[in-house]
Structure formats: structure tokens, C-alpha cells
Amino acid sequence: MTSDRVSAALLASADETLVARCVAGDTAAFAVLVRRHSPLLRVLITRIVGSATEADDVVQDSFVIAWREMANLRDGSAVRAWLVRICTRQAYALLRKRPADLELAVSEAAPATAGQPETQAVRNAQLRALGRVAKSCSAGAGRSLKRVARCHHR
């Protein structure tokens, strides 16, 4: 068999077969898994961490973990779900390591304008509400923004 046929055969292989080959040390099979699942994982992790660059790092680190732990995967056909779980855990670990944003006092965020106290009061109330929503977003990073907005809009 030529290397082109081997590559074509690997590309057409089921995940379960590729996992078995990875456990046996086949790096070409692992490369096929990486190529097959990276796009989905990259999109998912970009949505979680908010940065394509950080998502690439998380996905790459996750594949390193997957290579080391491949023998522990019980069902090779569930490799996609397993990779998603590894990536999301790594993404949330990254989010926990990020420093919390510094809070600005309302007086610093919105300077008072003479002659318009009603407008200033409304603006200050909006900034306080926005600050509460931002805090809850960072505390519950897994929740969607729509869900957070619904919780705070009630």
C-alpha cells in the first residue's frame, strides 16, 4: 500500500478505529482525529473564551491531554464527546485563571453633568445595573447572555 492509500484509508476510518490505532501509538491516526475534530472544537471554545487565539491554545492543549489519556477512553465511538469535555474543562480552567476586571466607581464611569440631574441619575442607575449583569456573567460563565439578561430583567 502506498502512503496515499494509507492516508485515504485513515481519512475514511471510523473514530473507533482511529482511537484503537492511537492507543497502539499510531500518530497518523491521531493526526486524522485532530483534523476531523479541530474545527468543531475551535468554534465551541472560541464561543466560551471569546478569543480565537486563546481557543487555538486550549484546543491544542486538549489534544495533548487526549493523546496521553487515549487509552482511558472506553468507547472509541464517543471520542468527539470526550474531546468536547476535555476542551470545555480546559476552557473553563482558562477563564478561572483570568484576572477579574477592575470595578469602576459610578462617579468615575459617568462624570456628573451640570444642569441635567435626571439624566445623570438614569445613567448612574443603568451603569449600576450593567455592573451587576457583568458580575453575574463572570460568575456564571457557562450561562448564555440572553439567560443572564432575562434573570436581571425580571
UniProtKB/TrEMBL annotation:
> Its Gene Ontology biological processes?
DNA-templated transcription initiation
The protein's GO terms of the molecular function aspect are: DNA binding; sigma factor activity
- Keyword hit for DNA-binding: yes
Q: Which Gene3D superfamilies match?
A: 1.10.1740.10
Is the DNA-binding keyword given for this protein? yes
Q: Name one Pfam family in it.
A: Sigma70_r2
Under PROSITE patterns, the record lists: SIGMA70_ECF (PS01063)
- Give the matching InterPro entries: RNA_pol_sigma-70-like (IPR039425), RNA_pol_sigma70_ECF_CS (IPR000838), RNA_pol_sigma70_r2 (IPR007627), RNA_pol_sigma_r2 (IPR013325)
Q: Which UniProt keywords apply?
A: DNA-binding, Sigma factor, Transcription, Transcription regulation
Which residue ranges does the record assign to the RNA polymerase sigma-70 region domain? 33-98
Family, similarity comment = Belongs to the sigma-70 factor family. ECF subfamily.
Protein name (Swiss-Prot/TrEMBL): RNA polymerase sigma factor
Q: Which organism is it from?
A: Microbacterium proteolyticum
